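Appendix B, Record 12. Input sequence as logged:
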Amino acid sequence: MDLSVRVGALNLRSPLLLASGFLDETAESMLRVWDAGAGGVVTKSIGKEPRRGHPNPSLVPVAGGYLNAMGLPNPGIDHFVDDVKRVVAKGAICIGSVFGGTDSEFQELTSRMDQAGAHAIELNVSCPHAKGYGTDIGCSPPLLKGVVTAARAGTKKPMWVKLAPNVPNIAEMAKVAVDAGADGLTCINTLKAIAIDTETGMPRLGNKVGGFSGPGLKPIGVRAVWDVSQACPDTPVIGVGGIMNAADVVEYMMAGASAVQLGSVLIEKDLAAFTDINRDLKAWCQEHDVKRVSELTGRARQERRAVAH
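Logged structural output:
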């Protein structure tokens, strides 16, 4: 049973990628993820300068998952390029995640990740809790177009855009990104949310507002993949949001994803998540007579057409 998939120009040994923001701030942690069986690792979102992020508490459990408001803490691109080089030197597939506040920053960061050897670049234009970055860009078609166009000029390597769920029509934002030069679309980032401590009457996060992730996000992520893969049928989609087991991977792929990213599940299972889900995904495919896991991509829409006819 073959778990390898192709995402645009990238060949991956497994459809399971590490999502940005988990175990990906050092070469050592990313290589641990690779050794656990990941098909590739997405780095921490890296900016031009070091950033401390938001005050604690920055991660709290809630019904259905987690709220986080990290605030894009990172060591800055000058300190991070060596980590990327070390990961690539070990043979691991590395996707460099970058964020910025201007078109020129995105172009510079994309170019630096390219020069460091990253196999692909992911543009974080959808973080819901960093003012001036992320969702502020990802919710505005003109800003998104400008950022993607500028970043495209910084690299010829595959470039993915991580889309925000906090928009009226994610398919339209996907089209803007693709028209501006995106080679892939990651669906989705966390959903803007807040939780209140009823004893103190105060927000539970230090930043007050954060991003919701975990199992409760999965139906929203699957719907986004469904809409985006239909709107941009020639562009690979990477599903992310609430994936906890092999059945979740199958669901995302059937909706149209070529690969997926694991995040919150690592809080509960650590690196065993990759080993366990790869094993169970193979078993599911064998049980359902699927020779290659890539056959699952878009199957729900294909089955729907077959029934309609």
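The chain has one domain: 5-54+67-190+213-308.
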